Amino acid sequence: MCGIVGAVAERPITEILIEGLKRLEYRGYDSAGVALLDASGAISCIKREGKVESLVQAVKDQSPTGTTGIAHTRWATHGVPSERNAHPHQSGNRFSVVHNGIIENHQELRDSLTADDGYVFSSDTDTEVIVHLIHKLSADYPDLRSTVFAATQKLVGAYGMVVSDSESPSELVVARSGSPLVIGYGLGEHFVASDQLALLPVTRRFAVLEEGDVAQITKEAVNIIDATGEPVRRSIEESDITADAGGKAGYKHYMLKEIFEQPEAIRRTLQDRLIEGKVADNAFGNGSLKLFKNIKHVQIVACGTSYNAGMVARYWIEQHVGISCSVEIASEFRYRESFVHKDSLLVTLSQSGETADTLAALRLAKSLGYSASLTICNVETSSLVRESDLVYLMKAGPEIGVASTKAFTVQLAALLLLSKALCEAKKINQDFCAESAQALTSLPAQMERAFSLEQPIKELAEQFADKQHALFLGRGDQYPVAMEGALKLKEISYIHAEAYAAGELKHGPLALIDAEMPVVVVAPDNDLLDKLKSNIAEVRARGSVMYVFADSDDQFESEPGLDVVNMAHANHLIAPILFIIPLQFLSYYVALVKGTDVDQPRNLAKSVTVE
Ligand code: F6R
Question: Alpha-carbon distance 128 to 175, whole Å?
């Protein structure tokens, strides 16, 4: 989604802002812009539709200078992607604003600013109301921070925003509600960004703004007031993310790099949490084991890939812990009246920790009587981590590719550990506790072995190049793996892909089968394999081209129209975590053959901070 960078310094900041935007490119966007103020208050505002590269060219041509400035990458919500809708937006040739989020009462504000105050709008965005509102209110308030604070009182919706004023060129004012912002602390200079990754080349010291905070940033100081207007301090933490964490480390794409990072990410995530075969006491947060003892139901809420991970966990929790588990898409959960079981644990899953629907679901759940909320999340400073009772931090490292890979497998490892923690707390199912510990410990090495499939899958991917549709099949805990495989393929190769529980085929989708519809099957050697084989036979009989991913040499043989890709036999508990690897490779290499933008697929954003 949209990205924000801002700086107030002694030195020229154009390069800092542009580098920050480049480091936020992964989030997905369709236009970019920058507004710089020099010491006299002269404004240079440059915007371009398309990639940051176009903006860089325009900046080179115009060589603007400035020591205070704001920059933005926009992911269109209100108004098409275009230069006129790109941020910063301006008012009265004085105020400039960049904004992430959505202003829900923008139409009402636009109507009154137009009819009552005579403002003329030059874009179709919801953001432009903010800057005219600030311009209008500035007559009634003594300084920029109190003006912005007053404006925020009239806004309904979500915002992370940064405002500059040409009549006060040595400050920026920032405000946060529903869309994250971090302040970066330098020596005699200060910064702001929607993601600390943007600022790592210039500082490692950050404070995360809380909901409702409004802050004035100058070279010398950061002055924050909270939602009630009272001065507050927010703690400054040293980031442990390295400045090159956003780099590709020699890989062609972030996605490929992140696929190969999975074993290490899992090792880090289990370290100090799985000790000598037991789950560490506070692995899921202080007091978690005591709380888990009485939990009788688990409600998982998530979106996209994280939802697919939750679907796998349902099989583990119901089978091994013996308690009920429901999994729901966050955008559905938040808008219905759901039944809350007694002694229920709410679990949110999220790579970013800022997904608007998942966050709204957590906030709703707080009023519904859950025993506690737990988030399994990859970003320590995120809203989900800050607002949940219990936290399991994933330690996958920054995930930059829009298509989630390592976050999925790390979530699964964490969820298997959660199932084990529930059993340990309840003192039940020791066999599962021992087997899962062993399986998790062996997982990173097994993942490394699965990487040998890269080459055969690369060759096989050619066969998908001219296909319009694909079907993914699985049974049991491999059905969500098929769902995740289909999601990966559709989002980065733009091939329409659907997943079905293989037993559902006869109930409709069999009608689609012909030689133009490749069918991908996830077929580990488990209790359901014979059933799955019958499903495969039904599809074969209808002339389909099939790709079967298996882990047993003697169950399938390749023949014309049936390609078998075998990996080493996987323990059934970790099979879902291993079987996604070939499907990740498949989607990656099909996307390469099709020449799509693998890391930033069209229309998508990495962190979905709007509804
Ligand atoms: C797919 C993908 C998305 C995310 C979804 C949730 O590859 O990345 O489906 O999984 O937007 O995001 P998080 O996990 O950040 O809440």
Answer: 16
